[in-house]
Amino acid sequence: MKILAAKPKPGNIFNAIGLISVEPLELEYLCAALSGAGHECSIYDGTTDGRSFTRALTQEKPEILMLSGYVIHAQRIIDCARRAKRLNPAITIMVGGVHAELNWREFQNGAVDVVWQSGDFESLLRLVDCISQGKTIQLMQRKFGIEAFAGLSLRLADGSWLDPLPAALDIDRLPMPDRSHFIRNTRRYHYLDRGPCAMLKTAWGCPCRCNFCYCTQMNGGRYAERSMNLVLDEIGSIDCNLIWIIDDSFTIRKDRVLEFIEGLRRRGIHKRFILYSRADFVAAEPGLLRELASVGVIDIIVGLESVKETELSGYDKRVSLEQNHRCVENLRSAGIACTGLFIMGPDSSRADVRALYRWIKEQGILNATLSVFTPFPGTAAYAAYADRLDTVSRERFDLLHLLVPPGRISAAAFHFELYWFYWKLLLLNLRSPRGGGFFSLIPRIIVNVLGYALRSALGRE
Fold first, then answer.
1. Rounded CA gap, 300 and 292, in Å?
2. How far lies 400's CA from each of 12, 370, 372, 414, in Å?
3. pTM metric for this prediction
4. How is 239-290 classified by DSSP, letter by letter?
5. Do the Cβ atoms of 70 and 98 come closer than 8 Å?
6. 148-184 confidence digits (pLDDT tens)
7. SS3 117
8. Strand partners, 248
């Protein structure tokens, strides 16, 4: 079968600016599994591909279209599916990805044939094989039984849907991602001013239970780690000097982190790494941080969330402000950059945001993000705030739009404080010793913004 694995273009200018452009790792896993089964698979990444989605379809002429994306892509995925059906009514359209894993019912409509709700490939490959033999879903169901398609939601001829059965994911059986797309387009995938950046996943899910976090619900709420030998094999195979480890937290177990450090040294692997961790781990392990720095870890992204104890407690972080402070100090001492992630809650005031900026400045944190509190569908926070949401438009679930009416200031003042924070943070970076690196990003930002404006004006989606 000829298959196109696709991710739609970003839905707003903030995503189009392209300060960080990430490798389409989920599509590369798909291509590896499908190619290994004898199918022809190509990738369309709307973030970096200069073609419109329609042009890509007419050029590639796929028999199966597999669409993936995050919550902000949900409506665009449905629009792309409808467009593909108009161009070729015989095409089979499957939808998967992070948002579909917990919210698969959102894609049960007439333009979509299959929703892939699991990260496991066994059922998906069995289904593609059946489609290649011209078998209908009803025939496949009778022959194999619905259990053979666990993790898949299938649309029947009468328009009804079979809901997915649970599908176990054995992550050590996943194929090595097919990075041929990344190799051809390395210059398009970068992390700020640090140049080309590849992505690596070593674990699925998260054992922590922060009530706003989507990752804790993924993989059926189970945390599963890949074998470190397989992880090191993949690192050694990646033709890129900078690797972003995208586990929700890479430092869940100290002994596994030590295994990572020792494995890199034993194999003589010399690369740079960016990874995620929790503040309590970083605060408690100054010595281990120095070891991580010695094997190439240059940046650790930490969910610091707030500089108010009451807010930290409300998020179920189980981390104190003192631990946040010690976390930043330990990273500085180890020579590792700290990227701090913070949340601007609906009850934030002007004083709160300005106190946060002062704390960041005092701590010397140059990389920081202030995300608007976003109760993602599928989380406990979404259930708690569902009746207070101003909109359910998925494109606005981008961590930049106010979804819940603010309690202490107007919506206009809320957004002003958010953008004023980012303006001051930009000036802080430009005045820093690494400011030249940020100046180098300006031409790219200008080109990306102009390109986004031109595509929007021409309707090239």
1. 10
2. 10, 9, 5, 11
3. 0.91
4. --SEEEE-SS-TTS-HHHHHHHHHHHHHHT---EEEEEE-HHHHHH-HHHHH
5. yes
6. 788 999 888 888 898 888 887 888 989 999 999 999 9
7. coil
8. none
